[in-house]
Specification:
The structure is a single chain. The protein is an all-alpha fold. The protein is built from eight helices and no strands. The chain has helices spanning 2-6, 12-39, 42-73, 76-100, 103-126, 128-131, 137-164, 168-184. Helix 2 runs antiparallel to helix 8 and helix 3 packs parallel to helix 5. The protein is elongated, with a radius of gyration of 18 Å. The N and C termini lie close together (12 Å). It is found in: Cell membrane. Keywords: Acyltransferase, Cell membrane, Membrane, Transferase, Transmembrane, Transmembrane helix, Transport. GO terms for molecular function: acyltransferase activity. The chain crosses the membrane at residues 48-71, 83-101, 107-128, 140-163, 169-189.
């Protein structure tokens, strides 16, 4: 079933949208952490590293409920597309931050990424029942969760590799690529006219 879902237009766009979005979030956070560790004294760096994690997570405490309201009131695929487009703008801020090696600018970008992810969170789970059979939901949720954790590990590893190249352009281009791919993915959603009752259609 999981293999069929991955190739289905009912699910694959969300899977890849979520994957590249989480990959970008964690790539940015860890690239910023590596920059902090490389440019600040140890004691000061420790404080800013902790702050980086808080800046990314804090919006979830305040905006997840708003994301749920958006998911209830509007077409979830449309909202996802718009949020992912806004993420390209956040990535542009991060690109500027890396090219200038400006930690304050990168914190602004990180907060923007966290805000978008907080709003997107309820939508990515709320959209699944609109596109999947009830019996497909456990597999769909498992794939989304699995993609998220793979992206967390992948973002950390890729940020380390990119930072070791000592090239801000590589980091900036990689982050922008993740955001563009995340934006493109929801565009192929096939919106169901009614709730699906058979699992044969993909």
């Amino acid at each position: 079933m999981m293999g069929r879902l991955i190739s289905s237009r009912r699910f694959a766009p969300l899977f890849w949208c979520q994957f590249f979005s989480a990959l970008g979030d964690n790539f940015l956070k860890n690239a910023l952490v590596f920059l902090i560790l490389a440019t600040m004294a140890a004691q000061e760096a420790e404080t800013f590293v902790s702050f980086a994690g808080a800046v990314l997570i804090a919006p979830f405490f305040f905006l997840s409920a708003l994301g749920g309201e958006l998911a209830d009131r509007h077409d979830k695929a449309v909202i996802a597309k718009r949020l992912k487009f806004a993420e390209i703008g956040a990535a542009a801020i991060a690109v500027a931050g890396f090219l200038m090696m400006s930690i304050p600018v990168l914190f602004v970008a990180l907060f923007a990424f966290g805000t978008i992810s907080a709003l997107f969170g309820p939508i990515k789970y709320g959209i699944l029942p609109d596109h999947l059979e009830t019996r497909e939901l456990p597999s769909g949720n498992a794939l989304v969760e699995g993609a998220t954790f793979i992206a967390i590990v992948g973002g950390t590893v890729l940020a380390s590799i990119a930072f070791k190249l000592s090239d801000a352009t590589v980091i900036a281009v990689t982050l922008m690529a993740f955001s563009v791919l995340s934006w493109l993915a929801p565009g192929s959603f096939r919106r169901p006219a009614r709730r699906r009752r058979t699992s044969s259609s993909t």
